[in-house]
Amino acid sequence: MDEQSLIQDALNGDLDAFNRLVLSYQDRLYHQAYRMLGDSHSAADATQDAFILAFKNLRTYHGGSFRAWLLRIVTNVCYDELRRYQRQPITSLEPVGDDDQEMESPHWLVDPGETPEETIERTELGHAIQHCLNRLNPEFRSVLVLVDIQGLDYQEASTALSCAMGTIKSRLARARLSVRDCLQAVPELLPSIFRLGSEGML
Amino acid sequence: MKPQISSHDFELLCVYVDGELKPKDSSRLESRLKTDAALREALRQIQMTKSILSHTPTMRAPRNFTLTPEMVGIHRKHTSPFWGFAFRTMQMSAVLSTLLLVFILIGDFLTVGKLGAPLLPAAAPLPKQEMALEEVSSPTSMLPATALPQEQAKALDTLAVATMAEPNKPQSAEKFVSTEMPEVAAAAPPSASAGEAAPMQAAAELEITQLPSTEAATVSKETAAPLPTATLFVSVQKKEISPKPTIETKTLPPVSPSWNLWRIVEVGLALIAFFSVIVALFFSTKR
Predict the structure, then answer these.
(1) Chain B residue nearest residue A197, CA to CA
(2) Which DSSP letter does residue B59 get?
(3) What is the ipTM of this complex?
(4) In this complex, do A176 and B57 lie within 8 Å of one another by their Cβ atoms?
(5) Eight-state DSSP code of residue A60
(6) Which long-range contacts (CB under 8 A, 24 or more apart) does A192-201 make?
(7) In this predicted model, what pLDDT tens digit does every residue of A138-169 receive, in sequence order?
(8) Inter-chain contact B52–A13, Cβ cutoff 8 Å?
(9) Nearest-CA neighbor of A56 among B67, B33, B200, B111?
(10) Whole-structure pTM value
C-alpha cells in the first residue's frame, strides 16, 4: 500500500494505517529530534509527541512531501522543548564527559556489525558534530540538520520550516560557516579520514 | 586557513554545492572560481563540511513510536450491540422519568393552593362530627385515668359539684369552653337544654380542651360573666337528656383520591429514575 493510501486511511480514523507510516518515518524523526536536542530521552519524547500531533492534525496536511510535513512537526516540538530548556535548565543524570557532553550509554556501543575502532570513530564523529550543532542557534541548527543530515532539498526544507527560500539559503550558509569553524577547533574528534587531511582541508 | 571571502560569496558557494544555483549564476561563479584561489579554498571547505555532516551517524529509534488508541483519545468499543441498546434504553428511561417527575412536581407546587381549597371544606364539618363526645353518665366517669392528673380530677369534681349546686351559674366552665372553641358552640344543636346539661358540659369540655390545671377552671369560674345559656351549648349529649344518644367516633379527614394518586406517581417516577440510572451505569461498564 502506498503512502497516500495510508494517509487517506489514517484520515478516516484508521490508526493501524497511520502506525505503518510511523514505522516508516520514526528513525528519521528521531534522528532529527536527537540532532536538535542532543539528548536521547528528550528526542524520544519529542518524536512520540510529534507523531501524536501528526495524527491529530492530519487534516492540515494538504499534499506535498509527507516527510517534510512530519519533520516540520518534530522540529516545532523540538523548538518548544528547547524553549523549555531555557526556562528550566535540566541537569542530566547520565554520566558526562570532560567536554560536558553526555557519554553514550553502553547499549549504543553494542553493535555486532562494527569493530570497536569503527564504533569509536562513529561515536567520536557523532560527538563532534553534536558538539558543533549544540552551539548553533536553533533556527540555524534546524536548517543544517534538515539539509545536510536529513538530505532535504531547499524546497522541502522551506516547507518543513515554513520559511522563504532565501531564508533557508542564508541560514544554511551561516550554519555551515559556524560548523566549519567549530570542526576546525576540534580536529581530534573527527574520524581518521577527515583528520588526516584536516589541516589542509578545513 | 580561513579564506577571506564575503558572506554573500559564501552563501553563493553553499547554494552552488547543493546544486540549487541557477545555471546563469552557476556559470558565472565557475568562471570566478578559476581565477580566485580564496574562493576555491572556501568551496573545498564547504564541501568537506557537508561531507562530514552527511556522515553523521544515523540515530535509530530506540523503540517503536506507534500510537495506541489511548494516546490519541480513541476509545475502541468491543461490546455486543445488546449492551449498547440496553444502556441507551435505561438512559432514555432515566431521562424521561426524571422529566415527568419534574413536571409533576412543578405542577404540584403550582396547584398547591388550588388543591388545598377543596380539601378545607371537607374538613370544615369536623366540629360537629369529630368533637362530639361519647356518651357520658357522670362528669368523672368519662375522664380517663391517664388523661388528667389527680389534682385535675379533683378540680373537675369540685367544679361539677359547684355547678350542680348552682344550676343558675353554669356559665363558668362553659364560658371557658366557648372561648376556646367558639365554632363548637356555633355548630351545636340549639334544641338542647343548657341548664340541665351544664355540669356535664363543663366536665366534658374540660376533657376535650385538655384543661391543664385547676387554676384555669377557677379563674374562668370567678371571672366569667353570666352569658345566655343558648350560646354556650356544646356538643355533649347526656344520656338522661337525649333519648337518642348519638355515638360518633373520630374520623380521619377525607382524603382526595387524586391527591394520593399524584403522590404515588411521584414516588414511582422517582424510583424509576433512580433505578434506571443505576442500571444504566451498570450497562455502561459492560458495553
Answers:
(1) B48
(2) P
(3) 0.76
(4) no
(5) G
(6) A192/A121, A194/A125, A194/B48, A194/B51, A194/B52, A201/B44, A201/B45, A201/B48
(7) 999 999 999 999 999 999 999 999 999 999 99
(8) no
(9) B67
(10) 0.52
